[in-house]
Write a structure and sequence with these properties.
Largest sheet: 8 strands, mixed
Structural class: alpha/beta
CATH architecture: 3-Layer(aba) Sandwich
CATH topology: Rossmann fold
Radius of gyration: 18 Å
Strand content: 5-15%
Strand order of the largest sheet: 3-2-1-4-5-6-7-8
Shape: globular
Order of helices and strands: HEHEHEHEHEHEHEEHH
Distance between the termini: 49 Å
Length: 293
C-alpha cells in the first residue's frame, strides 16, 4: 500500500512539474484514449512542439523529444527530459543529420505517431544547407519527407501546415530557388504546399496509416511573433488529439485540420498527379525513394 501511495505522490509531482515547466499550460483532455502511445515530435524545444509534448506527457503518453543541438536540448529540456521516452539530436537543415535523427528514433523503437512540427519562416535569403539546398525547403519539406521514408512506419502521421500553402506554386519549377530571386513568403508558402501534398500522398499510398495536416493558425511562437492573433494552446491541441485519440472523428486520413475542424485545402494539394510529381522530385533531391504501401 505504501508503494502505491508513493507512486501516486510521484505521479502528482510529475504532473505538477509539467504544469510549471509549460508555463502553466491549462489541462485539456485529448478525448478517449485506450492506451499509452509513443509519439515523436520534431522541433519540440519551444512553441507548438513543446506545448504538444507537455500536453501528451501530462496525459501519460511517452514522448520522444527533438532538439537541433545538444546545447539546445540541455537548455530547453532540463525539466522534460527526465520523464521523456527519449531525446534525439540533429539539425533538420542537414540531410546527414536528418538521417541520423531517423536512426536515433528507430533505435528507441517504433513510434505510434509522429508530429512533424519543426519549421522555419523568416529567412532573409535562400541560405545553403550542407547539401546545397535552400534552407526553408530543407527544413520544411525535405526533412519531413526523409523522416517519413526512413523512420519505421507509424500508425499516425501529423504534418504541421499553414494557411499560406494556398499561395504556393504547383509547377515545381526551380523548387530549390537556384534561379529565382529570393522571396521568403513565397518560399514558405511553397514549402507548406509541398508538405500538405506529401501528407495527402502518404494517405493515398499508405492506406493503413492515418496521415493528416494541421493548420495551427498564426500563433505567438518564436516563428509567429508576439503580435500573432491566434490562440497558442489551440495551436497544438489538434496535433495531439490526432496523435492519440481513439475517437472516430480523429481516426481519419488525408484531411486538413484547423482547431479540430476539417477545412478545405488548396486544390493543388489534393491533385494526385501533383503529389506523384512532388514525390518524384523529393526522391531526386534526397536520394531516398518512398516505399510503396
Amino acid at each position: 500500500m505504501r508503494d502505491l501511495t508513493s507512486q501516486s505522490q510521484s505521479r502528482r509531482q510529475f504532473v505538477r512539474g509539467l504544469t510549471l515547466a509549460a508555463g502553466a499550460w491549462p489541462f485539456v483532455s485529448l478525448g478517449k484514449t485506450s492506451s499509452v502511445r509513443r509519439i515523436f515530435i520534431t522541433g519540440s524545444t519551444d512553441g507548438l512542439g513543446r506545448g504538444a509534448a507537455v500536453t501528451l506527457m501530462r496525459e501519460g503518453h511517452q514522448v520522444v523529444l527533438h532538439a537541433r543541438s545538444k546545447e539546445r536540448a540541455a537548455a530547453a529540456f532540463a525539466d522534460l527530459a527526465p520523464n521523456a521516452a527519449g531525446v534525439v539530436i540533429g539539425d533538420l537543415a542537414s540531410a546527414a543529420q536528418t538521417r541520423a535523427i531517423a536512426d536515433q528514433v528507430n533505435k528507441i523503437g517504433r513510434m505510434d505517431a509522429i508530429i512533424h512540427n519543426a519549421g522555419i519562416f523568416r529567412e532573409s535569403n535562400r541560405g545553403t544547407t550542407p547539401e546545397g539546398h535552400a534552407k526553408v525547403l530543407a527544413v520544411n519539406t525535405l526533412a519531413p519527407y526523409m523522416l517519413t521514408a526512413l523512420i519505421d512506419r507509424s500508425a499516425r502521421l501529423i504534418y504541421v501546415g499553414s494557411s499560406m500553402h494556398h499561395g504556393g506554386d504547383d509547377s515545381l519549377r526551380d523548387i530549390d530557388w537556384l534561379e529565382r530571386r529570393w522571396d521568403t513568403s513565397r518560399a514558405y508558402s511553397e514549402s507548406k504546399l509541398y508538405v500538405t501534398a506529401l501528407a495527402f500522398a502518404i494517405a493515398r499510398r499508405w492506406p493503413k496509416v492515418l496521415s493528416n495536416v494541421v493548420d495551427p493558425g498564426w500563433v505567438p511562437t518564436k516563428m509567429g511573433g508576439p503580435s500573432a492573433p491566434d490562440d497558442l494552446e489551440e495551436g497544438h491541441l489538434t496535433q495531439t488529439w490526432l496523435a492519440v485519440s481513439d475517437e472516430a472523428a480523429a481516426k481519419v486520413s488525408g484531411r486538413y485540420w484547423h482547431h479540430r475542424q476539417q477545412q478545405k485545402p488548396a486544390a493543388e494539394a489534393l491533385d494526385s498527379d501533383f503529389q506523384d510529381r512532388l514525390i518524384a522530385k523529393l526522391a531526386e533531391l534526397t536520394g531516398i525513394v518512398l516505399a510503396s504501401g
